[in-house]
Design goal:
The structure holds two protein chains of two kinds. Chain A is built from 15 helices and no strands. Chain A is mostly helical. In chain A, helix 8 packs antiparallel against helix 9 and helix 8 (230-257) crosses helix 10 (285-308). Chain B has helices at residues 13-22, 70-81; strands at residues 2-8, 29-35, 42-46, 49-53, 56-65, 90-95. The chains are: A mainly alpha, B alpha+beta.
Chain lengths: 409, 112
């Protein structure tokens, strides 16, 4: 057994706490991007993700992700984190319990991606159920495939910190949920033309953005699970991709709308961060700029495409940011990885493996969550009534106002 | 007696108020209103999509003056509120039948 390294332990613990801070980032950006009447609801959903993500991942999710050697799903060997303690986790110099702690933060992050997409119209009880399913089964299965020794890991699929495992999983679940839910009242005209529904606080969204950016320095470099010199390189590629993603969104919106769009720039930065999450440890800083920039352009086009073409209402752009850019980042490993990338080594094998992982993740998560959401819809109903939606979820489902001192719109 | 209702830009309120004070016109009633003119509102953008704001925040100043002061007051408001761009506002003038001061019961010119 490897001896525990205290510097590794301290670093991974700090990184876990940075990942935790992303919960606040998500809550703030989602609340800012939606209307004042949905603020309580947004915060409640984000707290629910953290609450269920902690408890249910401890009870069963962690075990299904990391126990046993099955190709498809783990076993119940670590049910209730049995045998996860102070001894070093297999292959690492950190305690097993810290490995769990870090993974628990990731599980909560995957679940929380859904909350922004379904905002302002989903029943809280339906969301509660979706959030639970995410951390009990959906997320653990994909984690097992990629990080728990499952079939994708065997194939050599590379997703360092989770462009696919965390972000695409959350986004495909969100896509399934919004298809069942339908768009918010007023999002599309009778002719199907998308309309802007401005969020109520761009400053709150901006705080959320910067906290997410900050938290990503735990998410990516922390995924090294050790304090070696690589973490500095990962932090650098992470930051450069974020910056390039923001620049991409600024340029595209400036050309498209004549003025650079602030909200879209936030999406662009997040797009860069999501995209670099898979390749952050295997590409050079130069390529990270390319990956981030393309993500920033892609997210602007993708948000428009989902609204205009598919009539999908995703108030915060979660499906574009986490889904499309998660796919792009995962494929980017196959293009630009120092070892095995198409442009760097001339071999297409890794790209094919990456494509397989991306497709398999979609093929598992999307249909599963579509069935789950449909069942929830039949049993308890996914969507609130029209009058509740118009009044707002805050007063009807949670009995309060986010800003009780202000006159309501 | 004339009632002057001026709809102006919110950011011009201080200038107009001061200009009116300078010509000795102190009393006024101010309210925050929303409205639109012939332009019908303005375009804004939100996360890559433009939308129309068709009622814009404005300030309405109401004051009642003697007939002979009407032109001077109107000119003062116009000068102080004008930027030359669309959205500077409008002034409406109408006759006033009677004015009563609540505290004393003074009527008309004595009450203005």
């Amino acid at each position: 057994m490897i001896e525990i390294s205290f510097i590794d332990t301290v670093w991974v613990l700090i990184a876990s706490i940075l990942v935790f801070s992303m919960q606040l980032g998500f809550a703030a950006i989602e609340a800012g991007f939606t209307r004042a009447k949905s603020t309580l609801s947004i915060f409640m959903k984000n707290m629910t993700d953290m609450i269920l993500g902690s408890i249910l991942f401890m009870v069963i999710g962690f075990s299904l992700a990391f126990s046993g050697s099955g190709a498809f799903i783990g076993d119940l060997g670590h049910f209730l984190i049995r045998d996860v303690g102070l001894e070093a986790w297999e292959g690492l110099a950190i305690p097993g319990i810290l490995f769990f702690f870090f993974q628990m933060m990731f599980a909560a992050t995957a679940a929380t991606i859904v909350s922004g997409a379904v905002a302002e119209r989903i029943k809280y009880v339906a969301y509660f159920a979706i959030s639970a399913i995410m951390v009990i089964i959906t997320y653990p299965v994909i984690v097992h495939w990629v990080w728990g020794g499952g079939w994708l890991a065997e194939m050599g699929f590379v997703d360092f910190a989770g462009s696919t495992v965390v972000h695409s999983v959350g986004a495909w679940a969100a896509l399934a949920a919004v298809i069942i839910l339908g768009p918010r009242i007023g999002k599309f005209t009778k002719e199907g033309i998308p309309k802007a529904i401005p969020g109520h606080n761009i400053a709150l969204a901006g705080i959320g953005l910067f906290i997410l950016w900050f938290g990503w320095f735990g998410f990516n470099p922390g995924s090294e699970l050790a304090a070696n010199s690589t973490i500095a390189m990962i932090a650098t590629t992470t930051n450069l991709a974020a910056a390039a993603g923001g620049l991409g969104a600024i340029i595209v919106t400036w050309i498209k709308l004549k003025k650079p769009d602030v909200g879209m720039t936030m999406n662009g930065i997040l797009a860069g961060l999501v995209a670099i999450t898979a390749p952050c440890a295997s590409v050079s800083p130069g390529w990270s700029l390319v990956i981030g920039f393309i993500a920033g352009v892609l997210v602007v086009l993708s948000v428009d495409m989902f609204e205009t073409k598919f009539k999908i209402d995703d108030p915060v752009g979660a499906i574009s940011v986490h889904g499309m850019c998660g796919v792009w980042g995962t494929l980017a490993v196959g293009l630009f990885a120092a070892e095995g990338g198409l442009f760097t080594s001339g071999s297409i094998d890794l790209l094919v493996t990456q494509l397989t992982g991306v497709a398999a993740t979609f093929a598992f998560v999307f249909p599963l969550m579509l069935v789950v959401c449909k069942l929830i819809d039949i049993v308890i109903g996914m969507r609130v009534s029209e009058s509740i939606e118009i009044t707002g979820l805050d007063t009807t489902e949670f009995g309060g106002d986010a800003y009780p001192d202000f006159v309501r719109e | 007696m004339k009632k002057i209702e001026a709809i102006i830009r919110p950011e011009k309120l201080e200038d107009v108020k001061r200009a009116l004070e300078d010509i000795g016109c102190v009393g006024m009633t101010v309210s925050e209103v929303k409205g639109r003119g012939t332009q019908g509102g303005i375009e804004r953008q939100w996360r890559g999509r433009t939308y129309k704001v068709d009622l814009l925040p404005k300030i309405k100043i109401v004051l009642v003056v003697k007939e002979r002061h009407e032109k001077k007051v109107v000119d003062t408001i116009t000068d102080a509120a004008k930027t030359g761009d669309i959205g500077d506002g409008k002034i409406f003038i109408s006759p006033v039948e009677k004015v009563i001061r609540v505290r004393t019961g003074d009527i008309d010119y004595d009450a203005i």
